[in-house]
Amino acid sequence: MKVTDYFEQAQGETLVSFEILPPLKGGSMQAIFDVLDPLMEFKPPFIDVTYHREEFIYQKKDSGYYEKVAIRKRPGTVGICAALMHRYGVDAVPHLICGGFTREDTENALIDLNFLNINNVLAIRGDARKFDGQFVPEEGGHHFALDLVKQIKNMNRGAYLDTTIEDGEKTNFCIGIAGYPEKHFESPNANEDLRYLKMKVDAGADYIVTQMFFDNRKYFDFVDKCRKMDIHVPIVPGLKPITRTHQISGLPRIFHIELPDTLINELSKAGSTKAVREIGVEWCIQQSKELKAAGAPCLHYYTMGESDTTKRIVESIY
Ligand code: FAD
Predict the structure, then answer these.
(1) What is the pLDDT of residues 289-299, one digit of tens each?
(2) Which is nearest to 30 in space by CA: 72, 65, 80?
(3) The predicted structure's pLDDT at residue 131
(4) Ligand 1 neighbourhood includes 209 CB (under 6 angstroms)
(5) Residue 239: helix, strand or coil by DSSP?
(6) Residue nearest to atom 40 of ligand 1 (CA)
(7) Is 125 in the pocket of ligand 1 (CB under 6 A)?
(8) How far apart are CA 81 and CA 62, in angstroms?
(9) 176-193 mean pLDDT
(10) CATH topology assigned to domain 3-240+298-303
(11) Ligand 1 pocket, 17 CB below 6 A?
């Protein structure tokens, strides 16, 4: 079933969903099950599976030459999605990125997903690789998520890259996209970012999932601005509790978000990692309660490999 059908079916009730990160190469599927097993009692209708490009480093060999070596490779999403659907009977939402994919690669991935009866995708650009500095698309690949949305939408109309295909199978993908309550960091200002967000929606995106935020006011303002710009698709808040001390500086640096003063004040008084986690979890519970009371379509938790804190939060909401 499509993610947007779940929202309609819920008739204003706030759903809950989770995002999982595939293990690094060499890890096992059991690691994902270990995260999700304790969370399935909350009956998430869908689970997102992220996708990541590998990073490269240059390693000096005995010969003195340097060799380019791929590191931090995570497996693709298709197999993981199939395993989740089989084990839990939920809909899996694979993330599809522009980076590292030609248009043909993207089409082939979508064909595989369609054959597996996976009808939802989150269409995103992907981040720049560290050694590139800025986002560099694959030759023959997409520069922006907007172009990816257009390609998926074309396949939903039965139009494939090979224009000699007549009466091609019409796929039926529900398309999610990313939105940024605190604006995407590369965007010169929030209005410009919203203009591109609207282009993605006008091109056929069905719903938006936000970057994590720690001040609900930012989400509410973002939703207001979207509605004023005639963006009327569901906007799902993405949530992540602070659970470790290094995240106090790490999350703002990596995700280009701000932590509110009150939260920083509380965290600065925490004397231990355990205390940081307690404050982080309590903060996320309060955020979740307020978002639910305000009628958010779904609370989407970035598990980042941790189920115990996510479980505590969802338990106190549902
Ligand atoms: P885009 O919508 O393409 O926007 C990128 C930038 O370009 C923005 O500044 C935008 O304003 C601007 N822009 C957009 N369209 C145009 C245009 N036509 N012309 C000029 N400028 C334009 N990353 C991963 O690698 N894997 C994941 O699984 C993953 N999942 C994510 C899930 C969510 C919910 C979110 C919020 C982010 C996720 N990311 C993931 C991170 C994401 O890939 C990065 O934030 C990336 O830098 C931008 O992706 P986007 O889809 O928002 O890009």
Answers:
(1) 999 999 999 99
(2) 80
(3) 79
(4) yes
(5) strand
(6) 126
(7) yes
(8) 41
(9) 98
(10) TIM Barrel (3.20.20)
(11) no
